[in-house]
Amino acid sequence: MRLSEIFTSIEGEGVFFGTKTMFVRLAGCPLKCHWCDTPYAIPMDSGYAHTIDEVKEMISCELQENTYKVNFTGGEPLAQHEAVIELAKFVRKKGVKTYLESACYDSARFAKVLPYIDICKIEFKMKDARAVVDDKYYNNLLKNELECLKIATEAGKMPYIKVVVTNSTDVDEFSALVKEVFRVASPKNIAGFIIQPSHKTDEPVLERLFAFYDAVYPFYDQVRVVPQLHKIIGAR
Ligand code: SF4
Hints:
236 residues; alpha/beta; TIM Barrel; 7 helices; 9 strands; 21% strand; binds iron/sulfur cluster; magnesium ion binding; 4 iron, 4 sulfur cluster binding; S-adenosyl-L-methionine
């Protein structure tokens, strides 16, 4: 497998922000979001080649007391889904929760990994993320993201939803996405809906954040606008 890095920090995103978390960052991502904050982990040949056993050893050495969860992140963890399965089994045996932080670009791979994951986030990319090259690929990405949401809720995983917004994110597109999300998932089957403002790239002004919030609230009144905590406190 190709590994970018392993480290322990404070979770800075989503509904589990503030928890002591080990990050296992796999190298390589098929998407290319223009605001990506880990561009060094995008190339498929980035990071270092390791055997699974070597990475298990690294996880054992890094694991601190009172770690709440281990995040499999990237890059894109589903690009190396078989490695994630093996490592997630290993982490669970140590009595620590597993967390999948994926862009949900491949629902078939997501379904294979999910049984070994305790907590998952379903991320939706808006078109202004420029994650894929054109509308054809964007529609396929959206289809996979919605399918991952369906698979996770039907499995009773209580996923939470995250959408990164910039000042250029189209409010109508966002509203249409919200309708699709709640067509697929019932509010009682999700653990949160996080609107995450972009950081230092086309940051959304307050009026736009209100517009995004107002699009979700009628469907789900537990919606939250949550910036990335780790960047505010200077953690990795
Ligand atoms: S999916 Fe994640 S890792 Fe891949 S380019 Fe987008 S933000 Fe970066």
